[in-house]
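@here heads up, posting the sequence + SMILES for the calcium ion run so it's all in one place. Ping me if the SMILES looks off, I pulled it from an old spreadsheet.
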Amino acid sequence: MKTLIQCFVLIFSLHSMECAFTCDYKYSLLAKGWFKLNVVPETWHDARLRCSLQGAVLASPTSSAMAAEMKHTMKNFFLQDTEIFTGIHATFSSGSYYTVDGVPLSKIPLVWANDEPDNFGNKERCITFNSNGSAADRMCEEPRPYICFRSGKKEVLTNKCGTPDDGYHYYEKTKKCYKFHRAPGTFDHAHFVCSAENGHLAIINSEDEAEVLRKVFADNPAAWIPGNFWKDIAFIGFHDWGSWGDWRTIHGETLKEAGYDKFSGGEPNNATTGEHCGAIYRSALLDDLWCDKPAAFICEKDPAYPPICQPTADEEIDIDERFNNKVE
Ligand SMILES: *[C@@H]1O[C@H](CO)[C@@H](O)[C@H](O)[C@H]1NC(C)=O
Ligand SMILES: *[C@@H]1O[C@H](CO)[C@@H](O)[C@H](O)[C@H]1NC(C)=O
Ligand SMILES: [Ca+2]
Ligand SMILES: [Ca+2]
Ligand SMILES: [Ca+2]
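bot reply: prediction finished. Complex C-alpha coordinates:
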Protein backbone atom coordinates (compact mmCIF):
# COMPACT_ATOMS: atom_id res chain seq x y z
CA MET A 1 0.00 0.00 0.00
CA LYS A 2 1.33 3.40 -0.95
CA THR A 3 0.47 6.67 0.61
CA LEU A 4 0.97 9.83 -1.33
CA ILE A 5 2.96 12.21 0.76
CA GLN A 6 2.78 15.63 -0.71
CA CYS A 7 5.23 18.33 -0.04
CA PHE A 8 4.88 21.43 1.92
CA VAL A 9 7.06 23.77 -0.03
CA LEU A 10 8.36 26.99 1.40
CA ILE A 11 9.76 28.89 -1.50
CA PHE A 12 12.20 31.49 -0.26
CA SER A 13 14.29 31.12 -3.37
CA LEU A 14 14.94 28.42 -5.90
CA HIS A 15 17.33 26.88 -3.42
CA SER A 16 15.56 27.07 -0.13
CA MET A 17 12.67 24.74 0.60
CA GLU A 18 11.36 22.13 3.00
CA CYS A 19 9.77 19.00 1.69
CA ALA A 20 8.76 15.33 1.82
CA PHE A 21 10.62 12.15 0.73
CA THR A 22 12.62 12.17 3.92
CA CYS A 23 13.47 15.26 5.90
CA ASP A 24 17.20 14.74 5.50
CA TYR A 25 16.87 15.38 1.74
CA LYS A 26 15.99 18.84 0.39
CA TYR A 27 14.08 19.44 -2.82
CA SER A 28 15.39 21.71 -5.56
CA LEU A 29 12.95 23.09 -8.12
CA LEU A 30 15.90 24.19 -10.22
CA ALA A 31 17.38 20.72 -10.59
CA LYS A 32 14.04 18.90 -10.17
CA GLY A 33 15.11 16.49 -7.53
CA TRP A 34 16.16 15.77 -3.96
CA PHE A 35 19.63 16.55 -2.58
CA LYS A 36 21.51 15.35 0.46
CA LEU A 37 25.07 16.29 1.30
CA ASN A 38 26.96 13.55 3.14
CA VAL A 39 29.65 15.39 5.07
CA VAL A 40 31.40 12.30 6.43
CA PRO A 41 34.04 11.42 3.82
CA GLU A 42 33.74 7.95 2.29
CA THR A 43 35.44 6.06 -0.51
CA TRP A 44 33.81 6.43 -3.89
CA HIS A 45 32.46 2.87 -3.76
CA ASP A 46 30.86 3.37 -0.35
CA ALA A 47 29.46 6.75 -1.44
CA ARG A 48 27.89 5.16 -4.52
CA LEU A 49 26.44 2.34 -2.46
CA ARG A 50 25.01 4.56 0.28
CA CYS A 51 23.19 6.79 -2.26
CA SER A 52 21.93 3.74 -4.12
CA LEU A 53 20.54 2.17 -0.93
CA GLN A 54 18.59 5.38 -0.31
CA GLY A 55 16.89 5.22 -3.69
CA ALA A 56 19.19 7.94 -5.03
CA VAL A 57 22.37 8.21 -7.09
CA LEU A 58 25.74 9.79 -6.41
CA ALA A 59 25.17 13.31 -7.79
CA SER A 60 26.99 14.50 -10.94
CA PRO A 61 27.10 17.99 -12.52
CA THR A 62 25.44 16.74 -15.73
CA SER A 63 23.68 20.05 -16.42
CA SER A 64 24.15 23.67 -15.42
CA ALA A 65 21.20 23.26 -13.01
CA MET A 66 22.80 20.24 -11.35
CA ALA A 67 26.19 21.99 -11.16
CA ALA A 68 24.57 25.10 -9.66
CA GLU A 69 22.66 23.09 -7.07
CA MET A 70 25.74 21.05 -6.13
CA LYS A 71 27.81 24.20 -5.65
CA HIS A 72 25.02 25.75 -3.63
CA THR A 73 24.72 22.67 -1.42
CA MET A 74 28.44 22.71 -0.70
CA LYS A 75 28.49 26.43 0.08
CA ASN A 76 25.54 26.00 2.43
CA PHE A 77 27.67 23.61 4.45
CA PHE A 78 30.78 25.78 4.20
CA LEU A 79 32.59 23.24 2.06
CA GLN A 80 34.61 25.93 0.28
CA ASP A 81 37.91 24.26 -0.41
CA THR A 82 36.74 20.69 -0.50
CA GLU A 83 36.46 18.43 -3.49
CA ILE A 84 33.48 16.11 -3.28
CA PHE A 85 33.01 12.91 -5.23
CA THR A 86 30.65 12.96 -8.20
CA GLY A 87 29.01 9.92 -9.77
CA ILE A 88 31.38 10.18 -12.76
CA HIS A 89 33.78 7.25 -12.71
CA ALA A 90 35.93 4.94 -14.82
CA THR A 91 35.99 2.07 -12.33
CA PHE A 92 34.92 -0.53 -14.91
CA SER A 93 37.70 0.28 -17.37
CA SER A 94 40.46 2.87 -17.41
CA GLY A 95 39.59 6.17 -19.08
CA SER A 96 36.00 5.22 -19.90
CA TYR A 97 34.10 7.76 -17.82
CA TYR A 98 30.34 7.62 -17.26
CA THR A 99 28.02 8.76 -14.51
CA VAL A 100 26.59 6.02 -12.30
CA ASP A 101 23.43 6.30 -14.39
CA GLY A 102 25.26 5.97 -17.69
CA VAL A 103 25.81 9.50 -19.03
CA PRO A 104 29.15 9.55 -20.93
CA LEU A 105 31.77 12.16 -20.04
CA SER A 106 31.51 13.70 -23.54
CA LYS A 107 27.94 14.80 -22.74
CA ILE A 108 28.82 16.48 -19.44
CA PRO A 109 29.78 20.20 -19.49
CA LEU A 110 32.74 19.90 -17.07
CA VAL A 111 35.20 22.69 -16.35
CA TRP A 112 38.52 21.09 -15.40
CA ALA A 113 40.77 22.47 -12.67
CA ASN A 114 44.32 23.44 -13.72
CA ASP A 115 46.39 20.47 -14.95
CA GLU A 116 43.42 18.12 -14.64
CA PRO A 117 42.53 15.49 -15.64
CA ASP A 118 45.99 13.89 -15.42
CA ASN A 119 45.26 10.33 -14.24
CA PHE A 120 48.18 10.77 -11.86
CA GLY A 121 50.17 7.56 -11.47
CA ASN A 122 47.52 5.83 -13.60
CA LYS A 123 45.53 5.48 -10.37
CA GLU A 124 42.76 8.08 -10.77
CA ARG A 125 39.38 6.80 -11.85
CA CYS A 126 36.86 9.01 -10.05
CA ILE A 127 35.85 12.62 -10.78
CA THR A 128 35.56 15.26 -8.08
CA PHE A 129 33.88 18.65 -8.09
CA ASN A 130 34.60 21.69 -5.92
CA SER A 131 32.47 24.63 -4.87
CA ASN A 132 34.13 26.75 -7.60
CA GLY A 133 32.67 24.33 -10.11
CA SER A 134 35.99 22.76 -11.20
CA ALA A 135 36.45 19.07 -11.79
CA ALA A 136 39.46 16.81 -11.31
CA ASP A 137 40.25 13.10 -11.52
CA ARG A 138 41.22 11.59 -8.17
CA MET A 139 41.75 8.23 -6.53
CA CYS A 140 38.47 6.49 -5.74
CA GLU A 141 39.85 5.06 -2.50
CA GLU A 142 40.58 8.44 -0.88
CA PRO A 143 37.49 9.28 1.23
CA ARG A 144 35.55 12.47 0.40
CA PRO A 145 32.17 14.04 1.09
CA TYR A 146 29.52 13.59 -1.62
CA ILE A 147 25.95 14.43 -2.54
CA CYS A 148 23.14 11.93 -3.11
CA PHE A 149 20.50 12.95 -5.63
CA ARG A 150 17.05 11.57 -6.30
CA SER A 151 15.54 12.84 -9.52
CA GLY A 152 11.81 13.44 -9.71
CA LYS A 153 8.83 15.42 -8.53
CA LYS A 154 8.22 16.77 -5.06
CA GLU A 155 5.61 14.09 -4.40
CA VAL A 156 7.29 10.85 -3.44
CA LEU A 157 5.51 7.58 -2.90
CA THR A 158 6.51 6.19 0.45
CA ASN A 159 5.06 3.07 2.05
CA LYS A 160 3.96 2.46 5.63
CA CYS A 161 7.62 2.01 6.53
CA GLY A 162 8.44 5.63 5.62
CA THR A 163 10.56 4.67 2.62
CA PRO A 164 10.09 4.14 -1.11
CA ASP A 165 11.87 0.76 -0.62
CA ASP A 166 9.25 -1.99 -0.92
CA GLY A 167 11.65 -4.51 0.59
CA TYR A 168 10.53 -3.21 4.01
CA HIS A 169 7.38 -4.75 5.46
CA TYR A 170 5.42 -3.48 8.44
CA TYR A 171 4.50 -5.85 11.29
CA GLU A 172 1.72 -4.78 13.62
CA LYS A 173 3.00 -7.06 16.40
CA THR A 174 6.13 -4.96 16.93
CA LYS A 175 5.09 -1.82 15.03
CA LYS A 176 8.40 -2.02 13.19
CA CYS A 177 9.45 -2.76 9.61
CA TYR A 178 11.88 -5.46 8.48
CA LYS A 179 13.74 -6.24 5.28
CA PHE A 180 15.38 -9.55 4.53
CA HIS A 181 18.48 -9.11 2.37
CA ARG A 182 19.01 -12.18 0.23
CA ALA A 183 22.27 -10.94 -1.31
CA PRO A 184 24.83 -12.08 1.27
CA GLY A 185 27.24 -9.76 3.05
CA THR A 186 29.76 -9.73 5.87
CA PHE A 187 28.61 -8.32 9.21
CA ASP A 188 30.30 -4.99 8.33
CA HIS A 189 28.56 -4.81 4.99
CA ALA A 190 25.21 -5.77 6.52
CA HIS A 191 25.61 -3.04 9.14
CA PHE A 192 26.45 -0.51 6.41
CA VAL A 193 23.45 -1.48 4.28
CA CYS A 194 20.91 -1.35 7.12
CA SER A 195 22.28 2.02 8.29
CA ALA A 196 22.21 3.49 4.78
CA GLU A 197 18.57 2.37 4.52
CA ASN A 198 17.89 4.39 7.69
CA GLY A 199 17.44 1.24 9.75
CA HIS A 200 19.77 -1.02 11.71
CA LEU A 201 20.58 -4.71 11.85
CA ALA A 202 17.54 -6.27 13.53
CA ILE A 203 17.59 -6.37 17.34
CA ILE A 204 15.25 -8.86 19.01
CA ASN A 205 13.56 -7.18 21.96
CA SER A 206 10.86 -9.74 22.78
CA GLU A 207 9.44 -13.20 22.06
CA ASP A 208 6.97 -11.42 19.80
CA GLU A 209 9.79 -9.95 17.77
CA ALA A 210 11.47 -13.37 17.52
CA GLU A 211 8.18 -14.67 16.12
CA VAL A 212 8.08 -11.84 13.57
CA LEU A 213 11.65 -12.68 12.47
CA ARG A 214 10.71 -16.37 12.08
CA LYS A 215 7.99 -15.20 9.73
CA VAL A 216 10.37 -12.85 7.86
CA PHE A 217 12.81 -15.76 7.46
CA ALA A 218 10.02 -18.16 6.40
CA ASP A 219 9.02 -15.70 3.65
CA ASN A 220 12.51 -16.30 2.21
CA PRO A 221 12.84 -20.06 1.66
CA ALA A 222 16.34 -21.33 0.91
CA ALA A 223 15.28 -22.31 -2.62
CA TRP A 224 14.47 -18.65 -3.40
CA ILE A 225 17.85 -17.36 -2.28
CA PRO A 226 20.39 -17.48 -5.12
CA GLY A 227 24.09 -18.11 -4.55
CA ASN A 228 26.39 -20.63 -3.01
CA PHE A 229 26.24 -19.94 0.72
CA TRP A 230 24.44 -21.20 3.82
CA LYS A 231 20.76 -20.15 3.54
CA ASP A 232 19.52 -21.05 7.03
CA ILE A 233 21.33 -18.35 8.95
CA ALA A 234 21.05 -14.55 8.83
CA PHE A 235 23.04 -11.81 10.56
CA ILE A 236 21.18 -9.66 13.06
CA GLY A 237 22.36 -6.84 15.32
CA PHE A 238 24.52 -8.29 18.07
CA HIS A 239 28.22 -9.08 18.51
CA ASP A 240 30.87 -9.26 21.22
CA TRP A 241 33.36 -6.51 20.24
CA GLY A 242 35.91 -9.25 19.61
CA SER A 243 35.91 -10.38 23.23
CA TRP A 244 34.23 -13.74 22.87
CA GLY A 245 31.07 -14.40 24.81
CA ASP A 246 30.18 -10.89 26.00
CA TRP A 247 27.20 -10.57 23.67
CA ARG A 248 25.80 -7.10 23.17
CA THR A 249 23.34 -5.59 20.74
CA ILE A 250 24.80 -3.05 18.30
CA HIS A 251 23.06 -0.48 20.52
CA GLY A 252 25.10 -1.55 23.53
CA GLU A 253 22.69 -3.57 25.64
CA THR A 254 23.31 -7.12 26.84
CA LEU A 255 20.97 -9.58 25.16
CA LYS A 256 19.05 -9.97 28.41
CA GLU A 257 18.60 -6.21 28.73
CA ALA A 258 17.45 -6.07 25.11
CA GLY A 259 14.79 -8.68 25.92
CA TYR A 260 15.81 -11.90 24.13
CA ASP A 261 18.81 -14.15 24.75
CA LYS A 262 17.79 -17.63 23.53
CA PHE A 263 20.65 -19.36 21.76
CA SER A 264 20.08 -22.43 19.63
CA GLY A 265 21.17 -25.79 21.13
CA GLY A 266 24.99 -26.08 21.15
CA GLU A 267 25.40 -22.34 20.47
CA PRO A 268 27.26 -20.12 20.99
CA ASN A 269 30.13 -22.45 20.02
CA ASN A 270 32.91 -20.15 18.72
CA ALA A 271 33.48 -22.50 15.75
CA THR A 272 36.98 -23.01 14.23
CA THR A 273 38.52 -19.57 13.66
CA GLY A 274 36.34 -17.79 16.23
CA GLU A 275 32.81 -16.38 15.95
CA HIS A 276 32.18 -12.83 17.15
CA CYS A 277 29.08 -11.74 15.25
CA GLY A 278 25.39 -12.41 15.85
CA ALA A 279 22.94 -14.32 13.68
CA ILE A 280 19.70 -16.28 13.87
CA TYR A 281 18.66 -19.63 12.47
CA ARG A 282 15.25 -20.05 10.82
CA SER A 283 13.97 -20.86 14.31
CA ALA A 284 14.93 -17.29 15.38
CA LEU A 285 17.21 -18.92 17.97
CA LEU A 286 20.56 -17.18 18.22
CA ASP A 287 23.96 -18.26 16.89
CA ASP A 288 27.45 -16.83 16.98
CA LEU A 289 28.85 -16.60 13.44
CA TRP A 290 32.04 -15.64 11.59
CA CYS A 291 31.88 -11.87 10.97
CA ASP A 292 33.66 -12.10 7.61
CA LYS A 293 31.70 -14.98 6.15
CA PRO A 294 28.95 -13.52 3.91
CA ALA A 295 25.41 -14.40 5.01
CA ALA A 296 21.90 -13.09 4.44
CA PHE A 297 20.86 -10.42 6.94
CA ILE A 298 17.79 -8.73 8.35
CA CYS A 299 17.36 -4.97 8.81
CA GLU A 300 14.85 -3.37 11.18
CA LYS A 301 13.44 0.11 10.65
CA ASP A 302 11.28 2.42 12.70
CA PRO A 303 8.47 3.59 10.36
CA ALA A 304 8.85 7.12 11.78
CA TYR A 305 12.59 7.42 11.07
CA PRO A 306 13.81 9.52 9.45
CA PRO A 307 10.79 11.82 9.67
CA ILE A 308 8.86 12.59 6.53
CA CYS A 309 8.54 16.37 6.42
CA GLN A 310 5.04 17.13 7.55
CA PRO A 311 2.77 18.65 4.93
CA THR A 312 0.09 21.14 5.95
CA ALA A 313 -3.31 19.59 6.73
CA ASP A 314 -5.11 20.97 3.69
CA GLU A 315 -2.44 19.61 1.38
CA GLU A 316 -2.54 16.07 2.58
CA ILE A 317 -5.54 13.78 2.54
CA ASP A 318 -3.97 10.53 3.64
CA ILE A 319 -1.84 11.94 6.38
CA ASP A 320 -4.10 10.84 9.25
CA GLU A 321 -3.91 7.25 8.18
CA ARG A 322 -0.18 7.52 7.94
CA PHE A 323 0.38 9.06 11.34
CA ASN A 324 -2.01 6.62 13.01
CA ASN A 325 0.38 3.87 12.01
CA LYS A 326 3.37 5.47 13.62
CA VAL A 327 5.06 4.27 16.74
CA GLU A 328 4.77 6.49 19.78
C1 LIG B 1 38.27 28.75 -5.95
O1 LIG B 1 38.56 29.93 -6.63
C2 LIG B 1 39.31 30.87 -5.87
C3 LIG B 1 39.42 32.14 -6.68
O2 LIG B 1 39.69 31.87 -8.02
C4 LIG B 1 40.67 30.27 -5.54
O3 LIG B 1 41.41 31.17 -4.77
C5 LIG B 1 40.45 29.00 -4.77
O4 LIG B 1 41.67 28.36 -4.51
C6 LIG B 1 39.54 28.06 -5.53
N1 LIG B 1 39.22 26.96 -4.68
C7 LIG B 1 39.32 25.73 -5.08
C8 LIG B 1 38.93 24.65 -4.12
O5 LIG B 1 39.71 25.47 -6.22
C1 LIG C 1 37.41 -18.63 20.17
O1 LIG C 1 38.10 -19.18 19.07
C2 LIG C 1 39.36 -18.60 18.80
C3 LIG C 1 39.91 -19.24 17.54
O2 LIG C 1 39.88 -20.64 17.63
C4 LIG C 1 40.28 -18.78 20.00
O3 LIG C 1 41.52 -18.15 19.74
C5 LIG C 1 39.63 -18.17 21.22
O4 LIG C 1 40.43 -18.41 22.36
C6 LIG C 1 38.25 -18.76 21.42
N1 LIG C 1 37.64 -18.07 22.55
C7 LIG C 1 36.95 -18.71 23.48
C8 LIG C 1 36.51 -17.90 24.65
O5 LIG C 1 36.67 -19.89 23.39
CA1 LIG D 1 44.25 14.15 -11.25
CA1 LIG E 1 13.69 -4.59 17.71
CA1 LIG F 1 28.15 -20.69 16.08
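MO: The chain has two domains: 10-155+307-324, 163-301.
MO: One more: Confidence is low (pLDDT under 50) at residues 1-19, 311-328.
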